[in-house]
Write a structure and sequence with these properties.
The structure holds two protein chains of two kinds. Chain A is of the alpha/beta class. Chain A has a domain of 150 residues: 3-Layer(aba) Sandwich (Rossmann fold), CATH 3.40.50. In chain A, 39% of the residues lie in helices and 14% in strands. In chain A, the strands form four sheets. In chain A, strands 13-12-16-14-15 form a five-stranded mixed sheet, sandwiched between helices. Chain A has a four-stranded antiparallel sheet with strand order 1-7-6-3, with no helix packed on it. Chain A has a four-stranded parallel sheet with strand order 10-9-8-11, with helices on both faces. The longest helix of chain A has 64 residues. Chain A is elongated. Chain B has 16 helices and two strands. The C terminus of chain B is likely disordered. Chain B folds into two domains: 157 residues, no CATH class; 139 residues, no CATH class. Chain B is an all-alpha fold. The two termini of chain B are 34 Å apart. In chain B, 53% of the residues are buried. Chain B is 63% helix and 1% strand. Classes of the chains: A alpha/beta, B mainly alpha.
Chain lengths: 581, 343
């Protein structure tokens, strides 16, 4: 069926040296084959979405798999203890991020017993789909391809649009990384088990497992697993090896022909995409009840024996790299592949859910880039771009900080795959320029939004103050008018109201000047009232409703004016393209 | 300290690109020497040394690192194109002044490598043919001996001018232009003249063929794309072919147009200069076809025998507009995605 299937293609892409042979030679080093590190540092925020709240405090004993961070709302994912031991601290620690920023982390000293919390598998077939999704959220399952998007959120896709295809991403196009390859070779059945759960939750009739054709063993084992399951709706498909074929949108394009534009979701087209590692994690979480506390990590680059390890989250990176053989000229760790990976701020940052690969870098392995030359507009970058952008134009305008123009050239369609930088004969770090432009645009937009909100608040406050002042004056005027009317009436009909004599009483008490002022105010109020109501000399009893109608009309006028202002503001904003991100 | 991703890079550099362009010029240079003698080599040496001197001077004035930019070979490419485009028996100072104009004015005054809106070699050509039309239209006869060539290049200008008549030959485009003005002559009768070979100009057709071969290699090497050469040569053939079919007595055949003058050099080496050409696929087609149209108009109706230089410069001006109007659709935008959904 593989041969019969028509595959599609995306433009551009590059073919860097894969460097996958060394780390894929030996099987994955299992958890039970590894010693525990002396300390775990488990960051509470390891996924897209809300930051989980710590559920433990310093001094507390935790068990392996015990939830130590509760998901913050539904768009978040729980965090669990990687082993049993004592919580030493709950404090900010350096994150596995280039910035070197800190994140609230739970520091655990293992007791060596590796004692599990009580676990039980989930009988998902007899359960409501929502309950299964909640289970996955509380098991901390997130996308393990690198994006760490909460999986339970992605599994809701089928509720709005009918799903056609579930794409399973086993392409693994980045050089050096082989963790998905080895996982597919060794645990194909478990991946298929996870896929079956996902397909059920999504209601997708068809499952396509895309694997780059430079992984013949993985393709063979996955095909065999599909056949063994006797399920013709799950197909393993070899896709041509070309970076970035493992980008979700690129893989969806290759397998289904659908091009998902930036800003839209593949689910709008009936397609959802998961990494093979995520499928495995879902199987573990549901069929075994194991929350996500470890993952496969490729240790590659400047090490004695590049290999794949199953690593508990929170393990310091240098601990696991030392297992593979430390080399002294290692000058940094890169998390991820050489095309899109990030330099780590320190050697001992913890392995997290997004860590698919740790490359020990050395000056010999990754030579410093040659000096940057001017762009000669050769167009190599445009030919290499998998999203059909004109990278050199975006570079040009980014350099000039002409951010409006950069957006006109669709900056936000850029997936930062690095193909343009890879091929540039002038050695321009093009992707750095796009990252710079994106952050600048986001910062400016935040600033603009804040200023807009402040202005609206200020205007509303002024309007409110004016309205209150006016209403107060009107109320006062009306009361005085009512009092005058009441005092005039008894003179003609000889008093039936007890309040009548009271009203005029203060008037004579005041001096003449004051009286004149008050009378003038009354006259003004009367004139205003007449103007507004259009009727003169109405009885004071009907005065109240008139005033109420009036104020509502005013309110409406105010709202209209505000809407009008908002509209013109929106139009002005539309002239300058802005992004929603 | 390590830079940001990507940490790996393809084996590519500006120097490699320029080197490949120089390599692609070698067959044409060999054909030139074989057909016309060593004059071209002298001009090449003059042009390259002038270019490097001017480049070094301007880099120093502009405070740019010498070793980085002198080594990029871009000045050598410009100089080589000037040497190949200029008559090989022009006095030495013609090519020196032209090259200096190209490097100093057309390149560095506009901002140096990558910034020039006009093709520097063609700026040099246009300046010199406007200023010294007679010197720029005297081409060597076939297999000219070395002494005469050196005399023409370095000799005392008066003596050289006297000697020139004996050694020069009209190019076919020039012969056609002047010949067709005379009553009663036709393309067919003029084709019998000494300027013409079996395809283009006597001897020059070999050089043109070598440009074609070198250009095809550049396409194979992914230094240039097929768009500009195909659109230029195709449009030139179509336009000249139309006139030729209508009146073959007064209009040269499309084959002559393709093989004579600067057509092949322009199609593969001049119009394809990435800095001054269009960059989008559709833009390249429009750019090259426009240049072909102007080349034909100048050749058939203009005051100059050839028009590749002027056509190139005119189309260089249009590049920003053409590029802006021919942006290719971005991934996922092809099916008319509503613009508000794009961000």
């Amino acid at each position: 069926m593989n041969a019969l299937r028509k595959l599609f293609t995306f433009n551009g892409g590059v073919k860097p040296a894969t460097n996958k042979a060394e780390s894929s030679r030996d099987p994955i080093v299992r958890l039970d084959q590894l010693p525990l590190p002396p300390q775990f540092v488990v960051p509470l925020h390891q996924s897209v979405g809300g930051i989980p709240q710590p559920l433990v405090t310093a001094g507390e004993r935790v068990l392996k798999g015990q939830r130590i961070g509760g998901s913050d709302g539904n768009f978040s994912s729980a965090i669990h203890a990687p082993t049993s031991g004592t919580v030493i601290a709950v404090e900010p620690r350096v994150m596995a991020h280039t910035s070197g920023l800190t994140m609230l982390s739970v520091v655990i000293e293992p007791d060596g017993k590796d004692e599990w919390v009580e676990i039980q598998p989930l009988d998902w077939r007899s359960m409501d789909a929502n309950a299964v999704r909640d289970w996955l959220r509380d098991a901390g399952v997130v996308g393990l391809g690198g994006a760490v998007f909460p999986s339970h959120m992605k599994l809701m896709a089928g509720r709005k649009t009918p799903m056609k295809t579930l794409v399973i991403n086993g392409a693994e196009c980045e050089p050096f990384i082989t963790c998905d390859d080895l996982l597919m070779r060794e645990r194909a059945d478990k991946i298929i088990a996870g896929i079956r759960i996902m397909r059920e939750l999504l209601g997708a009739p068809e499952v396509l497992i895309g694997i780059e054709d430079n992984k013949p063993e993985a393709i063979a084992t996955m095909t065999a697993a599909c056949t063994a399951n006797a399920d013709a709706t799950i197909q393993t498909i070899a896709v041509p090896t070309r970076y970035p074929a493992g980008g979700a949108k690129q893989l969806i394009r290759v397998l289904t022909g659908i091009e998902v534009p930036h800003g839209q979701r593949s689910t709008d087209y009936g397609v959802q995409c998961f990494n093979v590692g995520t499928a495995y994690a879902i199987h573990e979480a549901i069929d075994l009840g194991h929350p996500l506390i470890s993952r496969m990590v490729t240790i590659a680059g400047n090490v004695g024996q590049p290999r794949n390890y199953e690593v508990l989250f929170g393990t310091p990176m240098d601990f696991i790299v030392r297992q593979a053989g430390w080399k002294d000229d290692t000058n940094a760790f890169i998390m991820g592949g050489p095309m899109m990976g990030f330099r780590m701020p320190a050697f001992d940052v913890p392995v997290i859910k997004a860590t698919n690969c740790i490359i020990a870098a050395s000056p010999r392995l990754f030579a410093p880039p040659p000096p940057e030359m001017p762009c000669i507009r050769c167009g190599e970058c445009a030919r290499a771009c998998p999203t059909d952008l004109q990278p050199f134009e975006m570079y040009w305008h980014s350099r000039a900080k002409n951010f409006g123009k950069v957006q006109e050239y669709n900056l936000f369609d850029c997936i930062e795959c690095g193909c343009c930088s890879y091929v540039c004969p002038s050695h321009i770090p093009l992707v750095d320029y796009y990252r710079f432009s994106k952050t600048e645009i986001w910062a400016r937009e935040r600033q603009k939004n804040a200023a807009d909100e402040a202005r609206v608040r200020f205007e509303q406050r002024n309007e409110r103050a004016e309205r209150e002042k006016r209403e107060k004056a009107e109320k006062l005027a009306a009361r005085t008018a009512a009092a005058r009317a009441a005092s005039a009436a008894p003179a003609a009909t000889t008093a039936d109201s007890p309040t009548a004599p009271e009203a005029p009483a203060p008037t004579p008490a005041g001096d003449d000047g004051k009286k004149a002022l008050i009378e003038a105010a009354i006259a003004r109020a009367k004139a205003k009232k007449a103007e507004a109501a259009g009727t003169e000399g109405e009885a004071p009893v009907v005065e109240k409703p008139v005033r109420k109608v009036l104020s509502e009309e005013e309110k409406k006028a105010l709202i209209d004016a505000a809407l009008e202002r908002a509209k013109t503001k929106k139009q002005a904003a539309a002239e300058k393209p802005v992004t929603e991100e | 300290m390590i830079n940001n991703s990507p940490y790996v890079r393809a084996q590519a550099s500006v120097t490699r690109v320029m080197l490949k362009v120089l390599l692609a010029l070698l067959p044409a240079l060999a054909a030139y020497v074989w057909q016309f003698g060593i004059g071209i080599l002298v001009q090449l040496a003059l042009a390259i040394s002038t270019a490097l001197a001017c480049e070094a001077l301007m880099l120093k004035v502009r405070g740019k690192p010498l070793e980085l930019f002198l080594g990029d070979l871009s000045a050598v490419v410009t100089a080589s194109l000037i040497a190949m485009a200029f008559p090989s028996i022009a006095p030495w100072w013609v090519v020196v002044v032209g090259t200096a104009m190209a490097i100093i004015v057309a390149k560095h005054l506009y901002g140096g490598l990558g910034q020039n809106p006009f093709n520097p070699a063609m700026v040099a050509y246009a300046i010199m043919i406007v200023a010294f039309p007679s010197l720029m239209t005297q081409w060597p006869s076939l297999h000219l001996d070395t002494a005469s060539q050196l005399h023409a290049i370095f000799g005392n200008s008066d003596a050289a001018a006297r000697a020139l008549d004996a050694i020069t030959s009209a190019t076919p485009l020039d012969a056609l232009r002047t010949g067709l003005r005379a009553a009663g002559s036709s393309v067919e009768s003029l084709r019998q003249g000494p300027a013409f070979g079996w395809l283009g100009g006597q001897g020059m057709e070999w050089v043109a063929g070598a440009y074609l071969a070198g250009g095809l290699w550049l396409i194979q090497q992914r230094i240039i794309t097929w768009h500009i050469p195909v659109a230029f040569l195709g449009a030139l053939a179509v336009v000249s072919g139309g006139f030729w079919l209508a009146d073959s007595a007064h209009y040269a055949s499309p084959l002559l147009h393709l093989m004579a003058g600067g057509s092949m050099l322009g199609a593969f080496f001049i119009l394809t200069d990435p800095v001054s050409a269009c960059t989008t696929p559709r833009g390249k087609l429009i750019f090259a076809a426009g240049a072909a149209l102007i080349v034909f108009l100048i050749r058939a109706f203009g005051a100059y025998p050839d028009g590749v230089a002027f056509a190139t410069l005119l189309l260089n001006i249009c590049v920003p507009l053409i590029d802006m109007k021919t942006q290719p659709p971005v991934f996922g935008h092809k099916l008319g995605t509503p613009p508000e959904k794009r961000h």
